Amino acid sequence: RLILAHHHILLDGWSVGRLMTDLFTLYAAGGDASGLPTVTPYRDYLAWLARQDRPSAEEAWRTVLAGVEEPTRLVPEGPEAAVAPDRLLVEVPAELSRALTETARRNDLTLNTVFQGAWAVVLGRLTGRDDVVFGGTVSGRPADIPGVENVIGLFINT
């Protein structure tokens, strides 16, 4: 048996898949690491990160967010009531799934981008605003680092 536990500060979701692939490869090879691919070290990402122009990045975000006076807040109607955590499972019909995937493809978007656009529309309707701001988590793996897709570590950005 193998139990793998880690804090999210060490590995992002992409890395967990890569780590599991490497572990299974090692297990199948009886511990012989020669079959594992050579990977770019995480320190290359840290060096790339250190070279980024933070003041320019901050200024770019200030420009993009100019005019935003407050966060987009969803305020519940009526008094707050205690709600027990629960799970909601929604099955998307195959026809709708195909239509969404086709919409994304036709517009050169990822399916995630389509959903984020839909979420922005929902937020706008719920808040009565035509300019909404919300955060999202992105991979954060810079394409200009060769082999970054195989590096194990924390890359997510919000």
Automatic annotation (TrEMBL):
Name the residues that span the membrane.
Answer: none
Family annotation (InterPro entries): CAT-like_dom_sf, Condensation_dom
Q: Which residues are the signal sequence here?
A: none
How is this protein named in the record?
Answer: Non-ribosomal peptide synthetase
- Domain (Condensation): give its ranges: 2-158
| SUPFAM superfamilies linked | CoA-dependent acyltransferases (SSF52777)
A molecular function (GO) term: catalytic activity
Instruction: Extract the Pfam families matched here.
Output: Condensation
Q: Which domain of life is it from?
A: Bacteria
Might you name a Gene Ontology BP term for this protein? lipid biosynthetic process
